[in-house]
Write a structure and sequence with these properties.
Blueprint: H1 2-22, E1 33-39, E2 42-53, E3 56-61, E4 64-67, E5 70-74, E6 80-86, E7 89-94, E8 97-99
Length: 106
């Protein structure tokens, strides 16, 4: 009886472990990182980091600035990024100059 009970406990443990594998870790939403200031629908980022503004993720990594994974061109390590969003309107300034998405050559 004791060995049967042990077998049931082991089997239940294996089922629990297999079930836990199907449930991945909960994804955490992106968070502000670096020298960031965000207020409502606008934000300022200096240097490398990330800011979330009005649901959009603005990120500076490896010398590039991206909004929602779309490339907006090169930046320096001390560039000041200003981003404003209002519905479908979005504005990105890098060191005071307006930027749009970069286009790949065909």
């Amino acid at each position: 009886m004791k060995s049967t009970l042990s077998g049931v406990v082991i089997a239940m443990g294996l089922v629990g472990a297999l079930t836990a594998c199907d449930i991945g870790p909960a994804e955490t939403p992106p968070q502000n990182k670096g020298n960031v200031s965000v207020t409502a629908n606008e934000g300022r980022l200096v240097g490398r980091g990330r800011m979330v503004v009005d649901g959009h993720v603005v990120e500076v990594q490896v010398g590039r600035v991206r909004i929602d994974s779309v490339d907006y061109g090169p930046v320096t390590s001390d560039s000041e990024i200003y981003f404003r969003s209002n519905g479908s309107y979005r504005q990105l300034l890098v060191n005071g100059e307006q930027r749009g998405p970069t286009r790949k050559a065909k």
